Amino acid sequence: MTSDATDTIDTLIARYVAGNLPTPARVLVASHLELKPRSRAFARGLEVVAGEELEHERPEPLSDAKSRLAAILGSQPPAPIELPPRRAGAVFPRALRDFVGFDADETPWRTRMPGFREHELGDIEGFHVSLFWIRPGRRIPTHTHGGVELSLVLDGAFTDVHGRYGRGDISIADETVEHRPTAEMDRPCIGMAITDAPLRLTGSIPRRLMDIIGG
After folding, report:
1. Three-state SS for 96?
2. Of 21, 40, 53, 150, which has the fewest beta carbons less than 10 angstroms from its beta carbon?
3. Does some domain include residue 89?
4. Last residue of a domain, one of 26, 44, 74
5. Distance CA 2, CA 69 (A)
6. Beta-bridge mates of residue 122
7. Same domain for 153 and 110
């Protein structure tokens, strides 16, 4: 990946730590952090810095502090969050599995074109969210974007003009990027994609037709 993409991923992680990502992007980044120890270390570092900044904030006096403390002490603790056990051979990270409620082998895929399957999760907080499955060696039609597309590889890998993306990697594309993602030959490429605008096919009409039918 290019340094620009890395910088943007770092920004995504910073926004995740700050708690101001929309739900689909939060799930995507949380899944990335589960799969990439290096990114987890970066996120932990940001959390430490944020904690140190809070320690230097000037405290503000509370009105009616005694009543507020009594209300806190008298409240019921939140119910513990029950996380599902880690499943042997699971493809989806826990954050994504919790979000969609199933794993890759249970996904109700629909074939969109030869060698390309998709499961649409719909529009969530301004993003269109979907899961995708690409046959080994399949080229996705050349396209660009009307906005931003974030793609997280969950299994397998694909390549495009920016390089190779394997399990846990995030691809970031926008209207400045024209690419033709191609799944590697050894296994299907499975991933999660979120977009804030439709993609647009590019290239000649014959090239588009060949790409759609898998030529």
Report:
1. helix
2. 53
3. no
4. 74
5. 51
6. 129
7. yes
**Rounded Cα gap, residues 33 and 194, in angstroms:** 17
Task: Give residue 1's pLDDT band: very low, low, confident or very high (50, 70, 90).
Answer: very low
Do residues 184 and 136 touch, judged by C-beta distance below 8 A? Answer: yes
Cβ neighbors of 94 (< 8 A, separation 6 or more) are: 34, 83, 84, 86
Structure tokens at 160: 């495009």
Least confident segment among 33-47, 81-95, 139-153, 155-169: 81-95
Listed range (14-23, 78-87, 168-177) with the worst mean pLDDT: 78-87
Name the residue with tokens 């969609």.
Answer: 100
**Could you say which of 74, 107, 133 is where a domain stops?**
74
CA-CA-CA-CA torsion sign (162, 19, 119, 102):
positive
Which pLDDT value is given to residue 65? 64
